[in-house]
Design goal:
alpha+beta; Alpha-D-Glucose-1,6-Bisphosphate, Chain A, domain 4; ten-stranded mixed beta sheet; 10 strands; globular
Length: 240
């Protein structure tokens, strides 16, 4: 039985790689045409403290894919943009995104859907959805936190990463509105770990997607964007 299953598993892996290659060709072409300038800040201080990945979360814990189930280093990534003279304040902006996430998502690279395949709308804590992505992976997530100025997803089993991602707004000392995306994640399976770790284009496309997301949020705020999207990435050892 074990020997008979190996060819099926091998064919499945080959099929995933072929699909990934085909989708990546299209996505890379779009990336080349629509590349978003991003200011990459390499700060000397270390990353912020990660959330407690062992805490209780809403929904079925058995379907979560937590960082300790991932592979390779833990990555802490942030993307942010500042706007001023906005029409929507921070709370209104978060409500706008949750009402229909695809309004600010570069849908040629990703789209938010319900488990039944409908566009995601009116998200609340406990809701589960699929982030449709190029290639052999999709990203099942659950809304695990919602405040007036933020919301957070946790990855579910089958996601190509294992971790959490938060979207939030705040106002800085200058009175500028900041929109920030912050994630803590490890690779969810060996194939993604290999492709993400070895091929720069995978990391570039991920950054491009969230940079576009930030720019679109800045646009719907009705304000003046003060700069290009900025980003940082910190890589932590697997046991940290």
């Amino acid at each position: 039985m074990v020997a008979a299953g190996r060819p099926i598993q091998t064919r499945s892996t080959i099929r995933r790689v072929v699909l990934w290659c085909l989708d990546m060709v299209v996505t890379v072409l779009r990336y080349a045409v629509q590349r978003i300038p991003t200011y990459r800040r390499h700060r000397q201080q270390g990353p912020a403290e990660p959330p407690d990945f062992e805490r209780d979360l809403p929904g079925d814990p058995a379907t979560l894919q937590r960082p300790n189930e991932g592979i390779g280093p833990l990555y802490h990534r942030s993307y942010w943009v500042f706007v001023t003279d906005e029409s929507l304040n921070g709370e209104e902006l978060i409500s706008y995104i949750l009402k229909e996430p695809n309004q600010v998502t570069p849908t040629e690279m990703a789209s938010f859907e319900t488990l039944s395949g409908e566009p995601a709308r009116d998200l609340n804590v406990g809701d589960e959805l699929i982030v449709r992505l190029p290639g052999p992976w999709n990203g099942p997530v659950r809304v695990i936190e919602r405040t007036p100025t933020s919301f957070r997803f946790a990855t579910l089993r089958g996601h190509m990463e294992a971790g959490e991602i938060e979207f939030r707004t705040s106002t800085d000392a200058r009175g500028f509105l900041e929109f920030r995306i912050e994630s803590w994640a490890r690779s969810g399976d060996p194939l993604f770990h290999l492709l993400y770790g070895r091929f720069v284009i995978g990391r570039e496309l991920q950054q491009h997607m969230w940079a576009q997301f930030c720019r679109r949020v800045a646009a719907v705020s009705g304000g003046v964007r003060m700069s290009n999207t900025a980003s940082t990435t910190h890589r932590l050892d697997p046991d940290q």
